[in-house]
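Objective 1.3, modelling of assemblies. Example input:
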Amino acid sequence: MPQDFDLNQFKATYFEECRELLDTAEEQLGVLQVQLDDVDIETLHAVFRCVHSIKGGAGAFNFTTLISFSHVLETTLDLLREGRVDLSSDLVDCLIRANDVLGILVHYAQNEEEIAADIWQNIAHELEILSGQKPTEIAPQETQKATSSLIASLSDYNLSADEEEEQGWGLFLENISPGLDGDGAVEKDDQGWGLFADEEPQINDSAEITSDKPHYRIRFVPEPHLLQFANEPLLLARELNTLGHCHGVADLSRLPPLNEIAPDVAYLSWTFDLYTDHDLVDIEEVFEFVIDDCVLEIERVQDSAKDVAEDKLLTRPSTEKTIHKPDDTPEKSLAQTKPVSPSPTTPDQPVVAKHEGKKSNNDTVNTTTPAVSSIRVDLDRVDRLVNMVGELVITQSMLKQQADELANNAGLRMTQGFEELNARTRELQESVMAIRMQPVKSVFARMPRLVRELSSKLGKKVDLITAGEMTEVDKTVIEQLMDPLTHMIRNSVDHAIEMPQDRLAAGKPERATIQLRAEHKSGRIHIEVIDDGRGIDREAVKAKAREKGLIAPDEDLDDDELDNLIFAPGFSTAQSVSDVSGRGVGMDVVRRNIVSLGGRISVFSTPGKGARFVMSLPLTLAVLDGMIVKCGSEKYIIALTSIIESIHPLKEELKSLMNGDVLVSVRGEYIPVVNLHRLFNIKGAVTDPAEGLVVIVETERYGYVGILVDELLGQQQVVIKSLEENYDPIAGIAAATIMGNGKIALILDVDGLAEMEHGAEKRRKHAKLQQQIFLSGE
Amino acid sequence: MSSPYNYLMPQHAQGRDVQQDNDDDTRQYISFTIGKEEYGVDIMAVREIKAWTDTTHLPNTPDFMRGVLNLRGVVVPIFDLRCRFGMGLTEATKMHVVIIMQVGHRLVGMLVDAVSDILSIADNIIQEMPKMDLNIDDEYLTGLVTVNEKLVALLNTELLFNQQSIEDGVMLGQAATGGK
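Predicted structure (tokens):
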């Protein structure tokens, strides 16, 4: 392997992959645990592949500890899938922990830190015992033996030529030949060589390498005038050489006697034998500039490959060769080259091969379509693109506004043009936003483990059922979802789910279920956590709330309000404070996190039957549909999702309270009015709700609140810009955006406004009280 | 987005050469005026100079906070330096200038009357701040320097705007708890 290229770049890719692989492995191990009795061999394969890929990469970068440990893990998995060891719950448990350790080792390798041997040796040893690789009686001298056994396995690992070869090359397996990765048993040397072909054109012992590569025979006959167009066959030959192993034979037959040679006439022609993983298209590209000035024949040769690697290809059905007879039309031959590339497995692992057989059939069908279905893109780039499109949307609406201002000459065609542009930009924006959309699976996938660990710790029996994992939501939202969801699941397991005997006594099944579902609902994502536990104990909640002074002693709340008290700060009804949860910050933090994302959370509980937590979140944090409102000389934006309705209240629907508060009656319900102009000190705004417009919005803490504005100006999709990036947060303002005229408009934070109004009310009360005291003192 | 360095770049690059030829301790400053007083800021912190345009007012902020500006998609707060120094609000016109600066991780704009010059000033000719009556607390000043018989006060923007945010916090607190 050449050393001169930038290894770090590959390392970065490797670690990125490792993380994904570890996640996948964990997910699959979770599946294994569930299907203990009826193990699907595919699951084992999947785990094996993950571990194997990690090991392969570790080999390439020489992370010795990682290699040793993953080897032990791999061996265990291999024994399992060959059916030589039976899967037990202990073993799976151990595998899961081993996977964690593997993650730690990867982490250490990434940070280039020293690894303490005891982190992994114990578990490696445990694995070996459980999988029967080591007799149990050695247990007393555990660590020592583990070390030696590892060293032993390491050295035998190094000795085995087959594996040696796959080291390092397996790493990029996914990237280069995705067709293979679904195929666990393909571990032979056909993996991934293509990657370094660029850097390594001169492979001397080509027999091994070329054996599995498609072989192309290229006949290149330049027209005599080729050289006059400043083309140089040598460069082409060099270029070909970069594609793979290339062998050229020159045809001198056209060469005239020396005295007749003209220096600018091409006499020679060549026949190249090229072994490459590249497509025909790539090869043709080499000749792109000379294609009109030469005769070029490229054909795919099947037979000659057989000579070099007969043993490898023996299993290939002979019929296949005839199907893939060279064809003149490039398109056709291109299409035909595809199915061959995942070369059939050598059945030297009989147990596995049986399962593979079925699978690879499917694969062959699938791989006829382009195998690469996704690419890995730096998030920064996507963000830049998203920003860019945001700017475009702004520019577009700016342009439209300017055109509208042109007196009368914006004719019909221009208007149509703008409509078109508008539709396109919106579409563009949507597709760009879709790039950042990811399934919530990445968050959901971590929950089974959480439940497993917690329930075993607490001695409860809980099943987690997830649904709608593929529901997509913006990456930024996903990142923020992890903590609240973890908290909620934790709470459910710890507080809501009863002990098995209690459940049985209550006539419920011994095993509790927690359901985790996600779905799209009216432009938002709804996530529900449903448990069949004891539900919220309203009496306890009430008592606690009174004790903590959250509600007045005589205050009576309905069931719903009581249930939602659990979101109040510093509230916890758990009898004992466990290390699982119960510090009383849980649900409060959950609510705050959700609200800060522009989401809502509520709980529906049936005592004795269970509780249902419903979260509703925006799909993205980058754009929102907003209503532009005017207040005095200022324009603000209110998120459309929080607006319930807007009303012109009649005089008699308004009630002024003693403390200066104004309530508006909407169909018999009194809703407090937020005086925006007063909170923001805006001059020239409408101050009488009867003359202005009251926008009823839904807030998290204060329910429905009416915001008094002058008028509504219209609805627009806006790109959210952070205000805090360059300035401090401002009460009542959620963010900023840029309007069509290039000016900035502020997006109102309705909860913040309600809070400000609430605070103002309190102060007024307070002032009044002071006054009363003062007066009575007088 | 285009580079924030745009048209300042050539001068800046030129400045580099000069610096290397002369003294390592020479720095370049952009000087600007507020009324009759002249101030200077380190050119390395200046990202852009642009004419005053209307800003969007932010509610419940101090007077010298003139609102926010759209700088190619970035929301940039603009501070009225005259008002900040206690000399009253600037009656901003198109002739007034906003200096966009990088302060820490933030981009902020300073509204000033006019930009006057680019000064190369050796560190050793910068005088300590004498205790005297200027319209500004001396903690924001790094020093004084006389250029062409004019007195230029060099500003420490980090301090100026950090203090800034502290005060904003106080103001906000007041707004939230009682101040109207």
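Chain A is about 45% helix and 20% strand.
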